[in-house]
Amino acid sequence: MSNLKKQIKANATAVASALLLSTAVSNISAQEKAGILGVDHVGINVPDMKQAVSFFTDVLGFSAVTSLGPIPLDDAWKKNNRMNPKTGPVSFKMVKAGTGANIELFEYQDNKGSSQQPGGDDIGASHIAFYTNDISKSVAYLKSKGVQFLGEPFLMPSGDTEGETWVYFVTPWGSKMELVSYPNGKGYEKKNPSTILWSPKDAVKNPIEKSDSKALSEAEIRSLVEGHLAIWNEKDLKKREALMAKIYADDIEMVDRHFIAVGHKEINGFVDDLQKKSPSSKFTHIKAIDVNHNIARLYWQNGTPEKPDAVTGMDLFVFENGKAVKLYVFVDNK
């Protein structure tokens, strides 16, 4: 019976894997056929363009870039788009919202459409969510600007969005928007999914997209990686913090298979715990450090003098502006 169960389980796993692969290939094929690369902008109909632009630029700190209009609309256009035939010309303003999709504001002169904002359960109701690494700080700032919030930030305790904090707020013209934060990632990421949701927190650190990064030589990167090993071997807290300040960016992310640590404080806590568990252990590298542009790879071992390779693994670094901003940790299974 046990062999039969194993066979059934193996067959089920194979079928599930095939279905997932088939779905992934189908989605990629469909996207390629459609020619879609991603989200370019989100459009919002606003009652007062000056008020809306002021909110996005003066309050949220975004940049107003392009303008168009007013453009008269013919009767056929209004009919096709289910608009009131007496509504006047339309004007547009594109706003750059930091990293991610742009926002298109449009205003109709002498608008005869409904001025009622949709309720949360109305079909077609929507909102824009803005990412922040520190939601408490963002909420305090926006409240100081008179922004109305619909409750307090809520931390998701479990499920795929575990670790995410969110809260809704309202624009001066009544549109609902959202602040969202998950600096340590979301719950679903722990399952090692084949696809990770796009996030501004990752995009701002993308080494390909960053054009203002300070270029480091291979020798400089290797020196920083050697310093990384020194950090993990340093037992004096003040010396370790000084090394971190030279080598790690303030908001460095260390991504392990089981957790994500953000910033010097969290990584320091992990190093302290590791040293307490094994005071005589030491990290050393076992191969030459590989460098490819601003990415480096370090193969390491950790152990006592009697068994220096008790644990082995590989660290992958991404460097920007002279410091490590990402650290991916791979521990070998033995």
Describe this structure as you would to a colleague.
The protein has 334 residues and is an alpha+beta fold. The protein has 3 domains: 72 residues, 2,3-Dihydroxybiphenyl 1,2-Dioxygenase, domain 1 (Roll), CATH 3.10.180; 68 residues, 2,3-Dihydroxybiphenyl 1,2-Dioxygenase, domain 1, CATH 3.10.180; 114 residues, Nuclear Transport Factor 2, Chain: A, CATH 3.10.450.50. The protein contains 8 helices and 16 strands. Strands 10, 11, 12, 13, 14, 15 and 16 form a 7-stranded mixed sheet that branches. Strands 5, 6, 7, 8 and 9 form a 5-stranded mixed sheet that branches. Strands 1-4-3-2 form a 4-stranded mixed sheet, with helices on one face. The longest helix has 33 residues. The radius of gyration is 26 Å and the shape is elongated. 15% of the residues are buried. About 9% of the residues have low confidence.
